[in-house]
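[Solved] Which block belongs to which protein?

Original post:
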Amino acid sequence: MDTTPTGTDRTSTRTRPGAGLSGSDRPRLARHVRLDFSRTRQRPILLHPEAVVVLNGSGAAILELCDGRHTVAEIVSELGARYQTVPDDEVREFLTRLVARHWVELTDG
């Protein structure tokens, strides 16, 4: 395990463009990306060096749970408890796109 600059232990982190997500993967925002709220737009936003991405409610809900502690399966389960229906494949597809853009990193479970 390597230690991050904040002193937390972490196993190998990877960005696997195009690869499927495992239910045991633990997604987290990349170090250069931040989830925030735009008071001007009254919407959650994803900030990264190249641009600002305005998120819809479900995208923000997914990313709020991408803390490196929750697994993909736990994120789907938590969202299922909050909302009536959460398509597992749509959550995985959303996270796969963000991994491909290097905005989300996966830590082995």
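(Second protein starts here: sequence line, then its structure tokens.)
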Amino acid sequence: MTLAILAFFGVLSILLFALRGFLDQLPDVFASAGRARDAWHALKQARSEEAQREALQSAPPSDHQDEQPPAAA
């Protein structure tokens, strides 16, 4: 009986030690996930800004840009 009690508490202490190690790593995991999310949003924003710049550069100039204002008589 004593051996069973010792075995049970030994296994329990190992499980608690493993759980503590896992819980100690969670803040780092959440911080890494936040940094990855921020990097993803920055990448998407940079791509959309680049696409907008390319669209503006490839757009044909409007006819009104090259015209001079009419001269006053």
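Accepted answer:
You had them paired correctly. Confirming on the second one: The chain has one helix and no strands.
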